[in-house]
## 1
Amino acid sequence: MTIAFKEIVSSVPEVSCSNCQACCCRLEVMIITDTGVPLQYIDYDQWGAETMLRLDDGWCAAVDRETLMCTIYENRPLICREFEMGSYECEDERRDMA
């Protein structure tokens, strides 16, 4: 690894709860298992499949807009549970939001 590349990698902050931008909370999320998502957060796509409700601003209805934290964390859909903070997909979404 070259020194310049090491400097770039070390200058990019690791994603953590304190700097998470909740970019994944703007993605369409299908509800494919029963995790107990409250009914007021459920919507239906054009084919009738259950999805997380997104508000007019594009964000998931379950996200607190001030803290960017999930208000139904214990009952979030399986897809949300499996989306790893700091993963390639997470970093990709963060780049797209910038």
## 2
Amino acid sequence: MIPSRRLLRAVLPALLPLAMGACAHVVVLRPEPDMSSGTLPLTARIQIGDVDSDVNPGTPIRFDVKPAILAYVKERRTFREVVDGPADVNLRIDTKFAFGGDLTGFKYAFQLRGTLSGNQGVIGKYVGEATATNSHTRFTGESDRKSTNEAFNAAINGLFSNMEADRAQILARLSMKQAAPAAASGPSRESRLVMPVSDVDSPRYRKPEIPQAYALVIGIEKYESLPPADFAEHDAAAVRSNLIALGYPERNIIYLTGPKASRTGIAKYVETWLPLNVKEDSRLFVYFSGHGAPDPATGQAYLVPWDGDAGFLQNTGYPVKQLYRNLNALKARSVVLAMDACFSGEGGRSVLAEGTRPLVTKVDAGVERGGKLVVLAAAAGDEVTGTERKEGHGLFTYNLLKGLGEKNGEATVQGLYQYLLPRVQDAARREGRQQTPQLMPAERGGDAAGLR
């Protein structure tokens, strides 16, 4: 631990500038992120200060810290997105480095301080610090680079772990600071920004990594030209966090929100990326949160991409039956699809072209028997989905993740369905409507079908 410069000097008393020679040394840092323990549904702008070093100015050490931190932050995905311009929050990171040694070896010590702020001021301050030991002082060989990277990696992982552990407080503070009365023209972007903090957002379980587990997670809340699907991106972020906790490698999770979830964006990952990457021993989980729509003439169900048009579904929608066929054709040993959307055209997470009504009484979103695909759908074809507003999630997604947490990540698809079905039905009835989640085909959701 390196809580202060004074203590650093006490712990590392013998700085050795002469041993390092008179030339400057550039140390390239390449930290590898730990798994994120809880994504913040915020965009962030990152500001990085210069490294403050205790090393003698006559023998300077320069660190390639800025690109290293930016690459780390983007890969760890603590934030929904890292941007160069105006953002929901600003994060400034300042770094201190100390080097010294005694007869036991040489110490490489880093301390990183992060200050998170919003429009109304500082939200929180966080620290990560670590020390590594080695027997070299030159900063030119692989051994030296390994030690500095080891200390820096541990320090930055500690900084972000501390920040993520404060997730609920960050969102609560940000929400309170943005709760000022809205102007007459409506609520500001900031006042609409922060989702409620839910108990399913940051899973408490943590399972070993499954190298052959893959996932495609899609959440579309703000459409290009359609009404929003409330909380859909919050749903997707929570599902992603839970999959990581289940052991799905981050490198194997495709995460699409906003314009990335266009018709082309969805198709290229379903029809090209998954067949190229999913193998015979793989398990696959696909999740969609957003609008569905029926074709009024045929009753066929469509997922509505970010750029979808309810009046031109055949050109801009993604047919649910086509999705089923593509997923069933994969080599994976198991495929689970969960959809928090509805296809009735009557509201909720469904849309219909203006001025039209469905001409059929039954929407066809069923899955054929005999394949490997198991589908969990939020509602029957003629029903409307709802939300759990106090949790900031779709009603179906909230109970799906709640069940997964209560079963410590060990639930089968059948077990999750039995958990969420009565809870979703009861909550919908209290709102004066019907919502009946579907498991299709039911015989494939048994004990052998799980998410792990």
## 3
Amino acid sequence: MMQSIKNVRHRISIGGTRILGMGLFVGCAALAGTHAATAADAPKGPQISRSIAKEVSDGQKALQANQFAEGLKHLQAAEAVSGLTAYDHKSIDDLKAFAYVKLNNLKAAQESYEAAIETGAANSEETTRFTKAIFSIAYSSQQYPKAIEYGKKLVDANAANGDTYQIVTQSYYLQKDCKNAVAWADKSISYARKEGETPKENLYLFKLQCAFDASDTPATIAALEDLIRLTGKTDYWNKLLRFELQDEKVDANILMIYRVMYNTDSMSSGANYVEMAQLLGDAPALPGEAEAVLEKGAAKGAIGADQKDRVGRLQTALKTRAETDKKDLTQFQAEAAKSASGELFVKLGEVYYGFGDYQNTVNSITSGLLKGQVKHLDEAYVYLGLAQAQLHNIAEAKKSFNQLKTVTNINPKVLKLWELYAERLS
């Protein structure tokens, strides 16, 4: 397993995966804002002690006038008075936190919010507000253990949202705690789905990087499959298919994997184009498709200068064979019609596919499947599905790929790749 992952040339990286920094800190000013500015004016419930009423009132007026340093002086003076109640301390701490946020002294703001909670005088709404503020400040200042602590408090209080789950996940990841990062990524994904939202790509990237760093090939492949289901990005296809290719020894399976890579436009190596073309060229009836593969590789600039002579000779040979096949199509059609089995019709359909004649591909392979006695049903259903997709008949293409499950002895890896490909058809 370890060697398997190390053989992948393109390192998986999720550089720049910080979901939120100061941007998530929606402004503790906003969190503290209205509540903090009126804490001492609440008409019902506990009241500020008379001994500090003037200082608190003066402090509030200063804060409302954006005179934050002045407001803090009044609040600190009020705080120094003896005999204060828990409610007094909570109200003063709330107002001080507001002022510190406005002064961008987040460390002091955090301490004030924590002190406000510790008084025990905050109601549930205030406690949630203070907790959110501490959570935001802790994450933005890279206090990841504290961000995790307060993020979990929000989850336990049913006051969390998708960002809360993601930040707890990321906080674990940034501490290199992959066990908890993966567990919370799964919780975040479940939460998003429960809320009818699309899970964030970053959540799967955390799982991918953790699996890769642990040299866990199955988990790496599973994460890449999830990322493909989510995004369909060619980069994820490329990485997944390179994992699947590296230990495969059977030519038929290698060619199937190349077909997926080719049809997801995730083939980036000139060597892959050449090998796919050679495998197709080795099949008696597929020179036209092999020629098309090389032409696409050349058009994408994937064929290196050191490969051009070799590829040129291969293209010439394939072109000659393909031209012969085109001339023989009428005879091939007649022979297929006379045959008792459907094998020739399927092979005829594959030839049509190589020449880009997708309707005749569908017609021929369908006729062959109806006749029966087809040797390679996996190839028949794959070419049928690919041709139907090219004709934008996605529903029928999905049905064709679904038929691969009925094929005896199909390689499980190949089956899974085509099922994933079919999921992304739209």
## 4
Amino acid sequence: MLQIFYSEHYNIDLGLLNYLHPFDGTKFKKVIKELKGISAVDIRSPSAPVSHEAIHDFVDDLVRIQLNDKKTVLRILEVPQIPLLPFSYLAKKILLPMRWGVAGTVDASKAALGGRNCWNLAGGYHHASQQSAEGFCLYNDIGIAHQELLKAGLLKAHDKILIIDVDAHHGNGNAQTFMHNADVTLLDVYNQDNYPRTAATRGRVNIPVLLHTGVGGSEYLAKYADALKQLGSGYRIAYVVAGTDVLDSDPIGGMRLTPGDVVARETLTFNKLKSMGVPAVFLGAGGYSKLSASTIAAAIKGLVR
């Protein structure tokens, strides 16, 4: 049984403004449509978006200001400045759905600590941190979840956490968030020719898998399998930033994996964590291809067969 966390509130539909960014903000409901009727899938929904208080406790003063500034939010979302667009529209149509996505990661984390393997269709906002928001990532959901689990006493300060990032882009936000936390292990597989190029955060990764533009599935999967062998033990929970921007059809990832390669990748991850006895929380992360939703659904189906 795999618990899938989804809410209709995850979906971002801006009408004609959808064409300003390649991300398909409604792909979450497309995944759910493909999963209907599968008995081994247990679909759950967070009851509320993550609170403003939780976000404010996590980010620093500058980011608090930035998250309430229209020009800055549009820059973070990588869309052009739109003079007549009110901030209230962005808050309702984009910030609020992402807060629901963070809530999904928090709830999935609690379920995982209870022994469940989970997949939050949203989340995986791995370019955000306490000090920054960028790359279509407003909130670092893993960092906020970690904070809330500590507050609730579900994790202790020195519990070991594993973050496996297989999105096409380096997870600089997660690296920055846990820069000085030696209890968090980062395994990051990414296109080193691509954004972001921050040396300090790349240097924080414990197990880096550096790939180049045009890498295919065979090389990717072989190097990833070798990296998984380097993992230690004793992790309380594992987060998997499972971006589909590695697909050949993706306009910005720069990799050449097929949907079958992605299914094989998630299966490798799941089986490895299962053999280690570590509960997993898979997260949506990046994916800008029209094949993203169907690939996610295929991966989930593969895990529950």
